[in-house]
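Morning run. Coffee first, then this:
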Amino acid sequence: MTPTPSSDNPRRAERQAARRQRAAGLLAELAVAARPQSLASSIFAFGIIPIFLFVVLVFLTITAVSDTDIWFHLALGRELVEFGRLPRTDIFSFTAAGNEWISSGWLASALYYFFFTLGSGVDSFFGPSGGGLVLIVLAAVAAGFAAVYFVSLRRGAPHGTMALLLLAAALASYMRFNPRPDVFTPTFMAGVLLLLATAPTAGAAWRLWALPFIFVAWPNFHAGFLIGFVPVGFYLLMGLIQWFRGGTSQPALTLGGRVLPLLLCFVAWMANPYGYHILALAGKIADIPEVTNSIWEWMPLVVTVPGYSLPAPVYVGLIALVLLAAAALIAVRRGPRLPLWSWATLVVLAALMFYQRRHVALFAIAVPAVLVCHLAPLDAWLARHRGLIPTSAALAALLICTLKMTGALQWGGASPPEIGRNCRVLPCATTEFLTAAPPPGNMFNSYGLGGHLLYHLAGRTKVFIDGRLDVYDHSTWRDLLDAQEKPERLDEIIARCDLATFVVDIRDWFNTPNHLAPRLAARPDMKLVYFDDGEAVFVRETTGTVNYIAAHRIEFLNPFRPAQLDAAAQNPTQRQALQIELEGMIQQSMGSASSLALAARAARLSRDTFNAHRLLMQALERDTQNPVALAEALAQGVATTQP
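And here it is:
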């Protein structure tokens, strides 16, 4: 029989009782000090400040849909909603056909597809514009933030200090507010941390029985449920250590009310369509070559590679969050200390965040969640300065919303945010071309294009690769990297995979030595059939592609080989055909800067100075960094902002 503290060590029991009494007295003082002194305080804390927080979340989540991975999630959702089946093997690529496909986000995919297709018409808010997707993101993010905020109001911080931490957390994690299954993971994590943090302080360990139900649902939304075992495991470990050391006089209640529900969490996750096989996801992703170097979200939090750093506001939000948390912990130094399981959880999540930036939202929501019962002293101190909390919250909310509206939260701050599909990032025009003219044979595509092509070409053309990291073998990843980086292997890959079509991302071709697109353009067997500012499509000339090339080949316009256009522009017999091709390409590529710049080049060579300048200005207005437009600006002697 385990001895009680009093029978084991009477003096130790007396000291523990005295500490508990002092802590209870301090909490009572803080509760009185922190209680709102007027109706105005209650209105601000329970009404006005939550509105500030919600408005910020609206501004940060209602934005253009730019993520390319959402499209393979939508393709899976289409299989679930329209056909009622959950594919267990790959059905969307020819390189991984039949390979095991585990999607922990299958339920999120079905939800996204349902709302994406809700409504009718291309201009409907819930339809193809993508409005339904961002509404789900807003609902998921707001649920987690609202839970943390209102629990803090009921746990000794009724003046709303928690809003300051949550505003900083929102700024730190806004880059993860994308329509993807992982947006649900911070919300589930917030629920887990709130239950663990409040159960002992409220004397209601029965609340821990809600945890197994969270772990039943979480694996069906995202594989991040594995990180949820971190706080649960630490909480269980610390509780068992305390129990074995005689830190409680009710061991039966500890086992039945705390240990058992925590242990069930490590079993409940099996209630998913894949069972224990879902654990294979992490190993498959870790085995991908150069995953932390080539995939943006898997890179470390801080990188030295130009163009791959997070926007500065993310770091500002993280710093503000840490400083506010430190102030709260300093203010609470005489009260109940932050439990060891909370410290251990924050350390692990911080390490994960620094290792892979995709975990920044988890750390950002975890900090205020673990502090939910420790803000009373800071809240009481700030409340002595009349209006400081609501004023600070209002100013922070106004600043974040202003930054979003001016485009400062985007890379470079080029323009305000847009609502709907961001076709400057997504290959919208390219997809329309390939949908109207399905490419012949096997198709090679750049990694970032695969998801969008997969969704729109499903049933007609299968992709080479896409963002489903766990589906593809190591050899496919190696072929992708070598085709882009090792010219000597290209012929081998073409022959082995029987590639007939290449859909290549060309955004960085001008500054990338040995870029795939110029190498394809230089090959006599490759014919350019489409291009815009983001992508180019080449078709290899074979007996099976002759008719396709004859119907779609670009004869004169080639941004990688401008000599073809120069010859046609100076040849009177070809000028009319060149003009027809120019007009068609401008329309087909949705007025791309590259096509407009080539039209300006043709006008200049034809001595049409007025149209040459007009078309160049349109091209630069569309994209000030387009290499074709910059080259033409140099030829015309037009000054640009580029060095």
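The two ends are 80 Å apart (CA to CA). Good start to the day.
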